[in-house]
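User: Um, any thoughts?
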Amino acid sequence: MKNNQKWHSEIINDDLKQLVKVEDEIFSCQTKFQNVLIQKTPSFGIRLLLDNKTQSTELDEFIYHESLVHPSLVFHSNPKSVFVAGGGEGATIREVLRDKNIDNVTMVDIDEEVVKVCKKYLPNHSAGAFDDERLDLHFSDALIYLQKDETRYDVIIVDLPDPLEDGPALMLYTKEFYELLKNRLNPEGMIVTQAGPTGPVLSDQCFNRIAKTIQEVFPNIFPYESFVPSFGSTWGFVIGSLGSKNLSISEIDSRLLDRNVLDLKYYDGITHQGMFSLSVQMRNVLLQDVDIITAQNPLIVK
């Protein structure tokens, strides 16, 4: 590496760091809740970091956001109302609002500054979604919002930063929070959450505990993963469902077409099958005896 080059170091775990070459540090600030950093990189384009953790990049955000959103929407036979916790970049609601079947989306993000920054520096992430008349946007703690508001939804999408010790999402990965989400679902409803890195090196960081905790609350869970290059790992997601879902490749593609969900870059019926076909190693990880995440015993990612 040349001495005049700038590299950004991101801690993955105690034994692993990821270095990314930086062309320009576009924006940086400390909000009431977290540190926000926008960088331009030759590998990933413009990227967003919160508390020094990569959240999304121009190059591959579509992989993460399509993976997070579309499987749960497709599993549901007739989704009309969606709640999104977090998702400040606007890409999650962008993907939800692709589905013409959706009548309303309620998005609750704790940090208004992040939304403003992303609108300015990452406008393609939201692609106009913040102006969609079906969106109801609130700036609040999703836990507090849902405790006060008893509206029920068909699908709840949890798109939050990792649960850092001093971060705003610590209590939103607990059994108590998932029980609250279950009580805010319509019959046959489901939740989905990002669940951290998978694979042999990192799967015990949080993926297995999140899956096990959701399994304590929901009668059916569906864990899956996608490789997100800017995260340096395959990334896990977990669906908790009040109903059992099993769709064929053709059924998935048909539902996407019927709902006018077109021009996806990553997700379709074939990709879906791969995402949900976990390796023997990952299936064994999910069988491990791990602690349930609770308010008294929270998950803390370093």
